[in-house]
Amino acid sequence: MPSAPKTLAPKALATALILTLPLAANAQTAAGLAGKVSSAEEGAMEGVVVSAKREGSTITVSVVTDAQGHFAFPADRLAPGHYTLKARATGYELSTPAAADIDAGKAATADLALRKTRNLAAQMTNAEWIESMPGTDAQKNFLLNCNSCHTYERIVKSTYDADGFMQIFQRMASYYPGSTPLKPQPLAGSATREGIGHSGELRKSAEWLASVNLSAQETWSWPLKTMPRLKGRSTHVVITEYDMPNPKIEPHDVVLDNKGTVWYSDFGQMFLGSLDPATGKVTQYPIPQTKKDWPLGTLDLETDKNDDLWIGVMYQASLAKFDKANGTFQTFPIPKPWDSDGAQFGHLAINAAGVDGKVWIKNSDGGKIYRMDLANDKFEDLGAFTDPKSGKRIGSYGIHADSKNNLYLLDFAAGDIARIDAKTKELSVFYTPTPNSRPRRGRVDSQDRVWFAEYGANGVGVLDPASGQIKEWKIPTKWSAPYDVILGKDGNAWTGSMMTDRVSRIDVKTGEIVEYPMPRSTNIRRVFVDDRTTPGTLWIGNNHGASIVKVEPLD
Hints:
By secondary structure, the chain is mainly beta. Helix content is 10%, strand content 35%.
């Protein structure tokens, strides 16, 4: 007679359940490390990001707790070794340092206790700072010019009065946009950056900032507001972060080539980098300088039809093409005259160059457009185009070509998307439903629809040139200020934020938006989807955190 089945004790039963938590849709995967997060104030805590980093490794793996406070790391993501554990839940911190030892073939458990933090200000995101500050949205919009270089915490902790801020504005306008507190880069000569504002507007902004910082008070007179933790489907994710070799590396654009190799552009240095996700090894390839004594850094990173890499080299006023076979670059200096000696050429469109052999290049500051003929490397200066409605020159922060190599310009200063016919050079302009939406970056999809972020309208949009119609989706978290957007083959569009430490996935058919939390402060620019997985896997750079991040939704 068979023996009766054994009954597990409550604690053992809970552990067994944790170790077989569903880690992907319609499947169960054994966990290498599992546990529960709780606090005296809340009990079991949902939406807490739990991170594990093996001793001596540059790779951190993170998961998010469910409604019962449980977390589980897939067994194949944690190699044997000693791990330091961290938890991110705004307003809380670990009661004591946490660690776990992983042995091959054995599951480990670790329960984490959190307590109220002693320093809430140190945990605040840019979005939380801007929401906490007293003032109107119109006043706060000014700060959307600042987060490219530093956090808002630096501003609210400063002691500058209005006159001091006016001097700061003047100095900031003379810095390269890829500057950070670790590596400020002044522009050369008398060049200054456009778009910071007019003198009258600046004075008002200076007075407002002096009213919210610590220039006239020992601490803030206004309460610190925090965003609620994400729950539900937002917890169904695995996040892997790869540290760069030094803190001055600024991964701006992160892309994968056809072989799955990860590549990144460095916003503050003259390097193209590659990452081996299996080992975390980073290789840097130095890019030649073409403009002596001007700031160093790159922006747009693209692949052509042959899977070769092209880079926009900003204030060096050139393009660079990388030869993977021998690890060398061919540079293409853009001929003068430019609109200004401080012209920045960070954006290019090469995806459709096979149609007519032409690469599009745009001067972001001055408005000029160029085409380079790949047959002879000669540049054609098309000049600048004017918006027929406003009479202003069309600028851009992102250019893209459709399947016929027609060019689209995203007018970051307004709410315009301009189209230039590749053959006739005729201009067409489309206007976003939300005025002054500030279109940015984006991508042209396989149907020749133009996807773009709406940095000033807290959303993303898509233009169907055939009908002239534009559809918008608004991101639910205020002050997300999306920088970029891309549509994956699974029908989900992705965007990220320099403000919220979150990425968003949009089901463009149903309109459902799922946000995923980042393990730490993450300044996100370009977003890239690896469509070889279902659902697609998101790759981003942490521009201010010297890391590359992989986001894998589980359903």
